[in-house]
Amino acid sequence: MMNIKELEETLIFQDYITDLLHKFGWSLNCYSSRKYNIEKGESLARIEIKQDKRVKETGNLYFETHEKAVTGVFVESGILRKDNTMFIIIGDYDHLWMFSKKQIQYILVNGNFPKVETETSKAYLLPLEYLYKHKSIILAEWENGKEI
Prior knowledge:
Number of domains: 1
Number of helices: 5
């Protein structure tokens, strides 16, 4: 379970993305309660936001598939959670990528990408090297808050 500092960092990043998308005419309208987040997804715009603080360090994007922070057992989350999400924005404050959820699911599940497991999370790693060889999978991309 996230501590208060981690939760605040996550919410600040979500607010950053909300402001960024607003500059491009998109209204995100994020759900803030766990109940709505689980039942409906992260936002009315059907966009899920994921901050990857280690992308520069690892050279990979971390796409979560399972978590057990709340229940104590692994449950589907991230790209595998069944909710209203159609798009995923992932990255850090310097670089962001937007993908179709269905497309990134297909690529990761059917590809030969590294899987990782921590005490509370399971995920696929998508190497940035692969991403730039297959740029067509990127729906939108931002660098330092500017669309590229």
